[in-house]
Fold these 2 entries.
Entry 1:
Amino acid sequence: MKKISSSFSMSAIFIIAMFTSPPCSAARKLLSSETDTAFIKTWCDSTSYPDLCFATFSSYAAEIKGSPQILATKSLFVALNTTRSASKSFNKLRKKQGLKTREAAALQDCVEEISDSFDEIKRSVAEMGESGGKSFAFRMSDVQTWASAALTDENTCMDGFSETAVDGAVKDKVRTVIEKVAHLTSISLSIVNRYAGAKN
Ligand SMILES: *[C@@H]1O[C@H](CO)[C@@H](O)[C@H](O)[C@H]1NC(C)=O
């Protein structure tokens, strides 16, 4: 009997504390931010690059709020923006003096592939944002098609710079840039795939 009443008074104190102390809303906020972050972690873990994924999207956790749709859209925008800046760096690199013929040719190919990739991700983003007309499944299939075409182009660029004939600093720079783009596109594609599959 004593035990029950003491635990009763403990809960009473807890309840009073819950309703009177201001940190309560802060605690609730903390709890929901943990849930939002856990959601990002779970989705990132099912991609091929969980660490890069989490590093990229955890800062958007509060905005994404556990919504697969917002995460999928955000991931496409991140891929799009990274592709845009890759395109800028490649164009800058291309103007560098003293490029070997072979490097210049591989770089030229990459500039074209990355430009195609940018257009494809843009189409993917546009499909994602469509609301009327097509069914969800049909629209998502277009989103997937364009994102996967973009990834193919990025991999083609990467392959051109994997050959041993192309060597040195330019190769390292291009590989670093294209790898990031390709990994972020791959992450976006797996998020989109999972989102599309979950809704079907
Ligand atoms: C992508 O770039 C646009 C334009 O610069 C910017 O408004 C947007 O916030 C960026 N999105 C992400 C997810 O980086």
Entry 2:
Amino acid sequence: MAFANRGFSGHRRKPDDRLPPGQTLVQGWPVLSAGPTPQVDTGTWEFVIRDGSGTEHRWSWEQLLALGVEDVRVDIHCVTHWSKLDMPWRGVSLDKLFENVETGFDYVMAHSYGGYTSNVPREDLLDGKAWIAIEADGAPLEPEHGGPARLLVPHLYFWKSAKWIRGLTLMPSNEPGFWEQNGYHIYGDPWKEERYG
Ligand SMILES: Nc1nc2c(c(=O)[nH]1)N[C@H]1C(S)=C(S)[C@@H](COP(=O)(O)O)O[C@H]1N2
Ligand SMILES: [Mo]
């Protein structure tokens, strides 16, 4: 596999420095879902960016893939203290999805099939820092891990990486998503241990 884009996270750090404070490496891959796993079919799947001015940018599954998928290797850090290093993922860069989105709004709410939300500043989704992920560990994303597609924002705690992603809505101010309304930090930088708000 060619890892064309190695992402934004700590790869230029020495391996020993790759684990944020309070984190432990985990074997396997835990499933953390606040509700049931929605059944999402790629035949009807749709991804929408609402730019805040009333314009909607829409992609079908085929249109998403046609933007070009890339392989990335990133570290992920869950607020419940587990981390995985050098995880292989495949997905579409958010840079491609935002290419024709004109907006003056600096904040984004991610919306999932099933109703989950998470908020992220727009700049945290750009410049090779975030993807709509469709594969992990060399296989299509399992439904329990967010398949067919999830947000992947590895430089923030993993609750920001909304599973079963269906769209992004631009916002003029920073509104809290599901976990942010329930005590998690509004931003969630693992290197600063921004766990709770
Ligand atoms: N739609 C949705 N996305 C979600 C969640 C969720 O409950 N629903 N949980 C979040 C949390 S708290 C974490 S740690 C990761 C877990 O992803 P995983 O189950 O693939 O490990 O997904 C995040 N994205
Ligand atoms: Mo989490």
